[in-house]
Write a structure and sequence with these properties.
The complex is a heterodimer of chains A (418) and B (260). With 418 residues, chain A is an alpha/beta fold. Chain A is built from 18 helices and eight strands. Chain A has helices spanning 9-28, 37-45, 50-60, 75-80, 96-102, 109-120, 124-128, 139-148, 165-186, 192-215, 225-235, 240-260, 285-291, 306-309, 320-329, 343-355, 370-385, 402-417, and strands spanning 65-68, 84-87, 131-135, 154-157, 271-276, 296-301, 360-366, 390-395. The longest helix of chain B has 19 residues, at 180-198. Chain B has helices spanning 34-49, 78-90, 129-138, 163-175, 180-198, 217-227, 240-252, and strands spanning 3-8, 12-18, 22-29, 58-62, 74-75, 94-99, 104-109, 115-120, 207-210, 231-232. Chain B has seven helices and ten strands. The chains are: A alpha/beta (418), B alpha/beta (260).
Chain lengths: 418, 260
Amino acid sequence: MWRELDMDLEKHDVFLGALPVAFGEVFLRQENRPAGMAYFDNALAEAHGGRIQEILAGKKAGRMVAGTFCVFAPEELIFAVDGISIGLCGGAQFTVPTGEQVLPRNLCPLIKSAMGFKLDRICPYFQAVDFLIGETTCDGKKKTWEILNEYVPTYVMELPQKKGAADLTLWEGEIHRLKEEIEHRSGREITADRLASGIKMANARRDALARLYRARWADPVPISGKDALLISQLAFFDDPERFTAQVNSLCDELEDRIARGEGVTRKGAPRILVTGTPMALPYWKLHHLVETSGAVIVGEETCTGTRYFAGRVAEDGRTVEDQVKDLARRLTAINCACFTPNKDRVEDILRLVRDARADGVIYFSLQFCQPFGVEGRLVERALQEAGVPVLRLESDYSEEDVAQLKTRIEAFLEMIAS
Amino acid sequence: MLVVGIDVGSTSAKAVLFDGRIKVYAIRPTGWSPREAGAEVLAEILDKAGLSRREVAYIVGTGYGRVALNFIDQAVTEITCQARGINYLTGKAGTIIDIGGQDTKVITVNEQGKVVDFVMNDKCAAGTGRFLEVMATAMGMDVDELGSLPKNVNPVNISSMCTVFAESEVISLLAGGAAREEIVAGLHRAVARRVKSMLKNTAPATVVFTGGGAKNEGLRRALAAELGVEVMVPAEPQITGALGAAIIAWEGNGGAVAHN
């Protein structure tokens, strides 16, 4: 199987060799984890095993495999042709040096790592895709797709930077064009019926994740932030229907826990909301540092958090035209820092602070992530005006700043407690 | 009651023995082992005071080495400790600029000595004690000599705050014939500007400068010039974190503190 994927097996073994230790330390040592996490632990363990076998089997049976990078990629179109949609690897320091061979060093680690995964040939998903769907959310990504396209076909959608009528029209057109591309690549027509079922499938997953996030509002929290992050990360990789069922069954367990007053931390533990850049698999550093400092993360306003399941798409569209309009409308519900202005993001964060009863906010941006780095100041000011303590952190995937981050996180928790 | 605060920083370990006032204190290099340095500096103050370990009711550890100290009762970050220590010394709200070996911190404190906000440098050493140490070495000087250079020299412009780039810059300035005094003044101004950029709001009313960096008179002058305010330096700026740790130990055990 690996040979078929043209993987660099030696490098792949080195990369995977470190993961079980890290996973054990970060996840398995947590106390009183919900039993339903077993599925997700296994899904991670099978990320480079069973899941990739499934994908290859699907591919052999004629299913199209599309890779995505962004929460704006309309996966509904992929589901509509019974295609396989997978988010791509991009959260590891291991591949950053390789990424830097073709990209500038002062670029965000997410892009460099993703590029490195392709160049190193250690991400089976990257090797299995028929094509990638890129988007123009930032200059770094926009230009990287041109280079990445030399290694794997990369289709780029132009994401607008405003949310006016003209922008919606542009985005609608982009979705139509992607629809044609997908029809061409899969050899299947996207009919209203097929698209309706694709929309339902994506909505069901959004509903399940929203339910999981609501469970985190309880005190004590029934699930750690780390586990919730892992689930969101796996949402990009797993079979959507199976994943949705598993999240819902985990939520049944969590809701029972809430009814019994049972949690993974003591009642009254400091509650932190994280906002900022996405945390691609296997980036767990920030969550681990916060949750081993005695606090718990009760929500993520990130692309691996609320932005991923924001914007339920209307299910009553009768024609493909209407459905594409509905898909395009989702643009207005996602408050990515690539938009200007982006005031709604501040409102979202303040609402999440209230709903999740957060004691403080950590604004986290990856180094060299300009949209989120720059927007940090506006968000910080708004939170301060609302009387919400906020800590701004910037980091990358390396381990070298762990002690300094820990000091700042602990000091922030001491500040909140005093 | 006797309590101790120990601050093991990247460069030096500090301990304060406290009984409602500072009884004795000690400072020694951290060396390679934070745990040993912490134990040694504790032994040193006990020795100075003629006490045994059993007579100490409670120990609070702080600084980057706090996690390595296996003999302490509680660990608190140096940010909280600095705030408490400075508030004890000044009795005021204000801003603390702490320049240590690896970190530069700007801490905003309220009247009660609680941290309201803080900023700390990212993982790079720009603007820290280590930055000045590297530059001193490049000029064949000891870091302690930097502060004692004459006041009225024209600072040369140092354009890079990256430690590695600035080192090259200093070396080429020396090669170009610039005077060491002028380069040092330029370095102090560069660090002061870096600190100014960490102050998110307007210039604060009360500024207290602590950490090993505060022993550098030239740096204090540069900070005062850049910020446009008076910059106070405590009598012993290196021990304020350990003092804050001791006060937290004292108050945590029911002690009441009057401001100095």
